[in-house]
Amino acid sequence: xxxxxxxxxxxxxxxxMTFRAIEVLKEVDLILAEDTRTSGKLLxxxxxxxxxxxxxxxxxxxxxxxxxxxLKSGVTMALISDAGTPAISDPGFLLTRACIENNIKVxxxxxxxxxxxxxxxxxxxxxxxxxxxxLPVKKGRQTRLLLLAExxxxxxxxxxxxxxxxxxxxxxxxxxDDRPISVSRELTKLYEETIRGTAKQVLDHYSNKPPKGxxxxxxxxxx
Length: 223
Hints:
It is a single chain. The longest helix is centred in the N-terminal third of the chain and has 13 residues, at 60-72. Helix 3 (60-72) runs parallel beside helix 4 (93-101) and helix 7 (164-175) runs antiparallel to helix 8 (199-208). It is elongated, with a radius of gyration of 19 Å. It has a five-stranded parallel beta sheet with strand order 3-2-4-1-5, covered by helices on one side. A five-stranded mixed beta sheet has the order 6-7-10-8-9, sandwiched between helices. It is built from eight helices and ten strands. It has helices at 19-27, 36-45, 60-72, 93-101, 115-122, 141-148, 164-175, 199-208, and strands at 3-6, 30-33, 52-54, 77-80, 105-108, 129-133, 154-159, 180-185, 193-198, 215-219. By secondary structure, the chain is α/β, with parallel strands linked by helices. The relative contact order is 0.15. Strand 2, helix 2 (36-45) and strand 3 form a beta-alpha-beta unit.
């Protein structure tokens, strides 16, 4: 019986790969990978010889129909991203939705997701929170920031290192210099760090020390 497995992969530390994830990746007929070169290193490390093909944001609209056809024919597949849980600011939503619409079973394994350790590690209230992922690059960015400035729940953002200063500057402008912020980068890796303080303090820190690596920003809600 055909099935699509959504399989999280480590966000840095390979020891975070679960036994179940390895087992599933070895047993399925095909692995859909965001970048086969990146995933190839992971698969080789765990002696996974299952065939793989690319499934990323630039081709997922075109490939969903053919993948559904393969699944209906009895092929079992696993979807992985370069790091973390697929469909969380990564490809995966379109294929998952198509499977549900076609009565194909979807099984999502638990595993690594960058924002969870960053949120818990921030020390901010986490009983209620808003996951924003990446802010719009241009169109709609100002509108979104104006709306989020009034949000009382803890906010979660993903950001790239070369855009962090711009984003922190805008947080000072729209949320206020004193809004509490926690920035986690290189989670689970050798140089993992979390910087906490006001928006202005965190901005000053990274203005003097340009950041590297993947970044999660946690912002305290409006008091």
